[in-house]
UniProtKB/TrEMBL annotation:
Its EC number is 3.1.1.24. Keywords: Hydrolase. InterPro entries: AB_hydrolase_1, AB_hydrolase_fold, Carboxylesterase_BioH, Epox_hydrolase-like. It comes from Hydrogenophaga laconesensis. It comes from the Bacteria. This is 3-oxoadipate enol-lactonase. Residues 22-251 form the AB hydrolase-1 domain. It is an enzyme of class 3 (hydrolase). GO terms for molecular function: 3-oxoadipate enol-lactonase activity. The keyword Ligase does not apply.
Length: 264
């Protein structure tokens, strides 16, 4: 597996890559980074060029500069990666917030997207009125009142998101990524993604789409999955048992099998 820093302009974007073949680009959640997809890169590399990305503000990518436009800026990061690999069309895979990023790209640049995989996903914050949005952001920011990331933040978040009994390695990978967040960037993403990801016309998604859900996801429960399946034309569904919000880490073999079956 190779690490690349790509892009001619700031912010430059870090990726992990392995394999040869059609491009599969994987996008992390709000508290993740590209390391959370390394198990999927290994599974995909015999058949695909498998790439996981650090969005701007995450991992080894450059910082967020100025106000963040959730759809435009994160979409530009993915297009930068796709252009680097000379991929006219790409299979996009996202988990949690990453699923909202790839869905946005599929709607705004449909000619560049071969298929979508939306794992532990939601349709956005359409149903949340402004006062609830304010409370949501305040609640998610409360851990950082002293202006720093608490030493226990990563593991606390990993345990809250994973199902009881999650494998120690899954918890470790998730906790390490969450502990590495750069606070200014993280808070900018929290604000922008919550306030701006509203009103996307999911009914206009035109590419093959797989929705992956889990039986113990406390962040986006089954009712949210039903909304996606009802609104995305022709979407197919894979449900993973004994997993919480981080399905690719908690049940990697089952996740990888569903992913490969769909992509093939």
């Amino acid at each position: 597996m190779e690490t690349l820093i790509i892009g001619q302009r700031s912010p430059r974007i870090a990726v992990s890559v392995a394999g040869r073949g059609p491009l599969v680009l994987m996008v992390h959640g709000m508290g993740g980074d590209r390391s959370t997809w390394h198990g999927q890169i290994e599974a995909l590399r015999p058949h695909f060029t498998a790439v996981s990305v650090d969005l701007r503000g995450y991992g080894a990518s450059g910082d967020i500069e100025g106000p963040l436009d959730f759809h435009r800026d994160f979409g530009a990061d993915l297009l930068t990666v796709m252009d680097h690999f000379n991929a006219p069309r790409t299979h996009l895979v996202g988990l949690s917030m990453g699923s909202r990023v790839v869905r946005s790209v599929a709607l705004r640049h449909p000619q560049r997207v071969a298929s979508l995989v939306l794992a532990n996903a939601s349709p956005g914050f359409d149903a949340m009125p402004p006062d609830e949005v304010d409370r949501f952001i305040a609640d998610r920011s409360a851990a950082f009142r002293d202006g720093r990331v608490p030493d226990s933040f990563g593991m606390d978040q990993a345990r809250a998101m994973c199902a009881p009994g999650a494998a120690p390695e899954a918890l470790r990978i998730a906790a390490d990524a969450m502990q590495r967040i750069r606070l200014k960037n993280y808070l900018a993403v929290l604000e922008a993604s919550t306030r701006q990801d509203r009103g996307d016309p999911l009914e206009q998604i035109a590419c093959p789409t797989l929705v992956i859900s889990t039986d113990q996801d406390r962040v986006y429960p089954e009712a949210v999955t039903r909304q996606l399946l009802a609104r995305i034309p022709g979407a197919v569904h894979a449900r993973i048992e004994r997993a919480g919000h981080l399905s690719n880490l908690e049940q990697p073999e089952v996740f990888n099998r569903a992913l490969l079956d769909f992509l093939r």
